[in-house]
What we know:
Shape: globular
Structural class: alpha/beta
Radius of gyration: 26 Å
Oligomer: single chain
CATH superfamily of the domain at 4-84 and 103-169: Aldehyde Dehydrogenase, Chain A, domain 1
CATH class of the domain at 4-84 and 103-169: Alpha Beta
CATH topology of the domain at 4-84 and 103-169: Aldehyde Dehydrogenase, Chain A, domain 1
Distance between the termini: 49 Å
CATH architecture of the domain at 4-84 and 103-169: 3-Layer(aba) Sandwich
Number of strands: 12
Amino acid sequence: MNPYAGTLKRLQDAFYSGITRPIKFRISQLRGLSRFLKENRNLLLDTLARDLNKPSFEAEISEIVLCEEEIQLALNNLHKWVKDEPVEKNLVTQLDSAFIRKEPYGVALIIAPWNYPLNLLLVPLVGAIAAGNYVVLKPLEISKSMERVMAEVLPRYLDQSSPDLARIISPKHFLRARGLLGSGRVAFGGQSDEQERYIAPTVLVDVKETDPVMQEEIFGPILPILTVSGVEEAIAFIRKREKPLALFAFSNDWKVVNKVLDQTSSGTFAGNDGFTFMTIISMPFGGVGHSGMGKYHGKFTFDTFSHGRGCVLQSPHLEFINKLRYPPYSQGRQRLLVWLLKHKLSLPCSIL
Length: 352
């Protein structure tokens, strides 16, 4: 029996009560999230330092500031994002009202990884709240200090969806990551401390495609290097595997960078750059195929957590026009209806 069935039922009942749907409620939650970041800035910086030994500069920029930017963007644009989106109509439906309505999916579960425990929990949360969903947050238990802050401090600023905190028992990630150091040869780094769950930044060379480090997502400070004969072989290597979440091409020759861009597919691409694309919230970030579903950052997060519901509303007073569609049929009616379906008229006209 599912031990979370009761919790899920309570969350679904809360969602169907309609509490999360009003724009006013969504805005109040986003403002609460903003206050959480402002009033607990030092606490969050200290927490990130304890869990990850993350420098204050990096934590400020990559974790806190980017979250604040996401919140402000949502607050500035929410009224525009939630508006019904009119769609182009054919002549048959020209007098009807046809549009896409952005509806929340319902109850969303957000699970944060360990590498950006604040950013990757709150950025999706912003979009999920903006879209009108009820949300369950799952901080990663490896980041114990951040997990405690999320469980004890954040709820003071938001309307609580449930007193329960989702928890998933984690495998021993440190031992898994350390085991990957046996692939190839360590050219740099390689030191580790099990008590501190620390692995030094490590570069592996003489790595083979079949080595364990090449068979899974690393989620650790380990960089395996495979030697290829040239850009063609590198592209072939990428294309025969599942599409990556992010792809980076470094070269002094822009033709090489553009060739990799044109002949591969990935969730995100960067040429001669690392991760600064994460700071551009007007650009989507997300996977493709096996590397992930959906996109986030700004309105892309709102769209990911929204269902685009196609809607057509027709006035009952125009039923006489619909006689064209009803039997008895005739060739004349058929030709007229086909013509109407194939042609569009740019009239901003709808009658309800």
